[in-house]
Amino acid sequence: MKKKAVLADRKNANNIADLISYMEAAKPKILFLCISSLQDIFEKFLVTNEMMVEHSSKCSNNEKTYKLWLVEKYKKFCHSLVDFLQHDEKNIVNMSLLTLSNFFKLEQEYFASDSPCQAVWPNVVQKLLDNSSDIQSMLFPVSFIFEEYSARHIFLTSFLESIHAKLPQQMSNTFLNNAFCCLEMVSTEINKVLVSEQEQLSESTHKEKKLLSSCWLEFLKHQLPMNLYKRVLVIIPDKVIPCLTNPLKLSDFLTHSYSRGGVISLLALSGIFILIDKHNLNYPEFYPKLYSLMNPSIFHTKYRARFFYNLDLFLSSTHLPAYMTSAFIKKLSKISLHAPPHGLMSCVPLIYNLINRHKTCRILIDRTEQQRFTTDPYDPNEKDLSKCNAIESSLWELKTLQQHYSPAVAQKCQKIDHLRNSQIPIAELLETSADDMFGRELEYGQKIKDTPINLFRPQGILNNQDNKFSFWCME
């Protein structure tokens, strides 16, 4: 009722003061209603320039006093919303952040100077970073605010000040998670700006990239919890590297991650390769380390599809030496003997494509001279790719897999005997799971009306010629 009265007639403006006073000791439900009512009131006033003193130079003193009073109440409401960002009730926190974001966007269009909401925005950033819970779900509804250059600039400046002010022991896991969520959202928006300004970046975009680079580099100096470490490595290739003024400054972080082994090394692959391929990073240990990551456990990791996709990309150059590509092909064949069927659905086509792409490696499946081996000359424990003797070996593993119990796998392996010039598209095979293969077998089984269950059709329950039943006494 009070909201409707204020919007209907400015004579009821004192209701604004009443609504603000109600918020001080209100229960969550009443507080939510007060915030919603005041949001509608001040949004209407912003759009209609009700609080713009500059537009009323010819107005009476009473009019100016009224407008200044409105601005004062608006500022008080904004400060209250900042305090509510650490409220116990999540819906109050979300509503306060959404209201502040809406005010910020409207002020860009309708408020001339001394924007009250912009003035409290550094405090908003501080409250978000210090929030005791993960703010990712809170930021999603207000992602539109980061479309504004001024919002991004204020945020990044405040973020840098906040992270500089904290000692390493004061960096809780929650703080680091919140910092990452904010940086990821800002990076996403700046990437959109970079795409739109591909030909020539504006001066403001250059400054923004420099500021964002400082934020990311400062953030990555801290020890990250394992889950956050993985999330950072996942977004670095697409969201972080394009936004940095000098991506090579990430080389220490990525090479250290690459040398850790396990899943962390898998996730660091893409970032390292981009620095090598596009930014001239000199890292001679890239391929030996990649080779060492190939073991049977790779088929059981969450990032199996990502690894095989990257492996296909990294070995796409036809300028790689034959000993290196043959070592990778042979190692893939070796570990495929321990792979589950759904892992073979992407591994075997990758081997096929590598042999097709690197013609010198066809000797692994098509030797003209006859040789007898008592043991495989390939040494899987040799770390030096040039000394593992892969090119002296053969892909007998694939010949073995042609007798695999899964018809789909056996069929894939038989293609090695009939190489063509075309490549097998493996992108659609990377995410193949055991459930997918089982579902296809069920579909195939439904098409077969009569399923053979015996080699010869039986002529009754017992066969007289079967000596197995000679001990029975039939009456």
UniProtKB/TrEMBL annotation:
| One Pfam family in the UniProt entry | CBF
Q: Start and end of every CCAAT-binding factor domain?
A: 265-411
**GO CC annotations, alphabetized:** Noc4p-Nop14p complex; small-subunit processome
Q: Which InterPro entries match?
A: CCAAT-binding_factor, Noc4
| Gene Ontology BP terms | ribosome biogenesis
Q: Which family does it belong to?
A: Belongs to the CBF/MAK21 family.
Q: What is this protein called?
A: NOC4
Q: What is the lineage of its organism?
A: Eukaryota, Metazoa, Spiralia, Lophotrochozoa, Mollusca
